[in-house]
Amino acid sequence: MKKKMLNTTKNNLITYGMVIIAYIIVQIFVLSGSLSNLMQGLLVPLCTYVILALSLNLTVGVLGELSLGHAGFMCIGAFTGAFFSKCTFGTIPDGLRFFLAILLGALVAAIFGILIGIPVLRLRGDYLAIVTLAFGEIIKNVMNVLYVGKDSAGFHFSLKDQMSLNLADGGEVIIKGAQGISGTPKNSTFTIGIILVLITLFIILNLMNSRDGRAVMAIRDNRIAAESIGINITKYKLMAFAVSASLAGVAGVLYAHNLATLTALPKNFGYNMSIMILVFVVLGGIGNMRGSIIAAVLLTLLPEVLRGLNDYRMLIYAVVLIVMMLFNWSPKAQEWKARHSLKKLFGRKDTAAKGGN
Questions:
Q1: What gap in Å lies between CA 108 and CA 105, rounded to an integer?
Q2: CA gap 289, 291 in Å, rounded
Q3: What is the pTM of this model?
Q4: DSSP element (H, E) containing 156
């Protein structure tokens, strides 16, 4: 048991070290002027995608539920954080305001995760995927018709147009429907992104190795057996889903504060974004956090390196997703992995026996 804990700690430290070393290398390239402006512009989105991949892996890999609504939670966090920053601009110091925006985005996304999770997590498999996909599309469409203004009388809301807000003189429209939010302070930096990636890793890895995390994985492996030993299925599934949603909200806040104008476009918060995050998880290995980081980085950078294939990106992602799912779920692949793991296990036992002799 002690040896297993030491191995887990070692693996976690390697993952943290990998992120820190990557940050140092990138900073060296930036300071030496070797990194192009295009690549520098990708650094914050890269951190956003890594956080999204890690948080979705908590739902798909650790909890074992297929969710396609992750872009919806990201959208909630992005608009919540941007709205807060726009309303409090000039009244709170920049660093504190951005920190509060992250906390607020995470909190609101977690609340929506709980509200959605209560009815949705009763479903399983394809049904859960379809409902969460619908949730993501609903959130995106609502943000495209939502108008919010502020004047001396307070906040005004409308789902029709700006004129319906009936703002007094000097009032300001903050959320402009399909035009989104303009003028969000650009507080996101690569350093802050890396700090948020490390915090996300810390939360997820510690959750996985905690008593609660083991309960969640027990539910994933055998729901009936977990329930029979007294594990509260609803409680632990909701907890994992809410944590995953809150981390997606954090990624949304980071994403929103890197843009001059935040809009709820299909490419930002639509179906394709949810599929892209799922591809990161599947390609990196379901339940493998280190793999999710590597996959998110590679699949974000490759379209820029190979710009000629950019138009075929979603097609390539679809092919990769199908191939990986076939590899993970086909009977022959499972048989090969089982045989391989048995050989590895018996090889370790033989080594231990020889050492004992």
A1: 5
A2: 5
A3: 0.84
A4: strand 154-158
